[in-house]
Each structure stands twice: as C-alpha cells, then as structure tokens.
Specification:
The chain is α+β, with helices and mostly antiparallel strands and 183 residues long. The chain has one domain: Calycin beta-barrel core domain (Lipocalin). Helix content is 23%, strand content 38%. It has 4 helices and 9 strands, in the order ααβαβββββββαβ. The longest helix has 19 residues. The chain is globular and about 35 Å long.
Length: 183
C-alpha cells in the first residue's frame, strides 16, 4: 500500500514538474499581441474536443487590451447557420505572457501562456484548464493570416506532442470564410 502511494506521489510530482516547464515567450509585450488572429491548428486531451474534432473549423480571436492591463479575447466560431461569439478576460500574472482566467460559460479556471510569438505572423498558445475532477490541456496555433508557413505548423505539432497530447488530437483546422470578418 505504501509503495502504491509513493508511486502515485512520484507520478504526480513528475506531472507538476512537466507542467511547470511550459515556456512563455521571453520579453512578452502585451500591446503587440492585440488585434485579430485566425486559428490555424489546435490540439487537446479533452474528451469533448476529441469527440467533436471532426466537425471543428477555424475561428477568429480578437484581442484588446483594457486600461487595467487585462486582455479581452472575443472569439467568433461558425456554429450551424450563425456565428457564436465567446468572450474571456485574461488577467495578468507576475510572469509576462502568462495569464489566468475563469471561463464564464463553464466556471473553470484557465492558465494561459503565450508560448511563442513574433506578434505579426503567429502565436502559439497553451491553455491548462482546471476542471472539477481533472486538468485539460489545449494548444492552439494562431496566425495573423489564414495560412502559415509549414515550419510554424510543425513547431505547433512538436510542442503539442511535447505536452503529452496524442498525435490523433492534433488537427489543422479547415479554413472557412464564415464568421471571418475583419476586426
């Protein structure tokens, strides 16, 4: 029994260490991340995501910086015959490029990290969501345009695998013109 508890504790510590090592863009600049972004690819270990991944398409995210330093993210998704917009406020942490948020829809806690960006072409975003009984991970690749260089898409895939996400969960989102209006 003690061996099992010790083994479980070691696994938990390893997971925490791996989670702590998720990088954040050095010298992250909030003001340069604002504007419109197009989702290019996404990966997740969420059962909902895995069940729905075949029907997902690209969406837009418009980021605005508020006077208090928070980032307001308005994401618009194609949904049936309409466009669905969801908003989330990202609250700064002590670490530039790392934010926390509470999902207004599901009341889950999120840890957002801008892992890598050059601000004018792409942004690689990591989101760890704390649910009532477990943690979910999502990695999303965004572009200022609907198409990105293959090397950036490969970077996204490698990073997703490094986070322990299964190859089958890494998808390139089909592009659409629906709900893709300019900011």
């Amino acid at each position: 029994m003690q061996v099992a508890a010790l083994s479980l504790g070691m696994v938990f510590l390893c997971c925490l260490q791996a989670y702590a090592e998720v990088p954040v863009q050095p010298d992250f600049q909030d003001d340069k991340i604002v504007g419109q972004w197009f989702s290019i690819g996404t990966a997740s270990n969420s059962k909902w995501f895995l069940d729905k991944s075949f029907s997902l398409t690209a969406h837009t995210a418009v980021i605005n910086q508020n006077a208090d330093g928070t980032l307001e993210v308005n994401s618009t998704y194609p949904s049936a015959d309409q466009c669905e917009t969801r908003s989330m406020t990202l609250i700064k942490t002590e670490q530039p490029g790392r934010f926390r948020a509470t999902s207004p829809r599901w009341v889950n806690e999120h840890d957002f990290r801008f892992v890598s960006t050059n601000y004018d072409e792409y942004a690689l975003v990591y989101d760890r969501e704390a649910k009532a009984t477990d943690f979910l991970t999502m990695v999303t690749l965004y572009g200022r345009s609907k198409n990105l260089r293959p090397e950036l898409q490969e970077k996204f895939k490698i990073f997703s695998l490094d986070q322990g996400l299964p190859q089958s969960s890494i998808i390139t989102l089909p592009q659409t013109d629906k709900c893709m209006t300019d900011a």
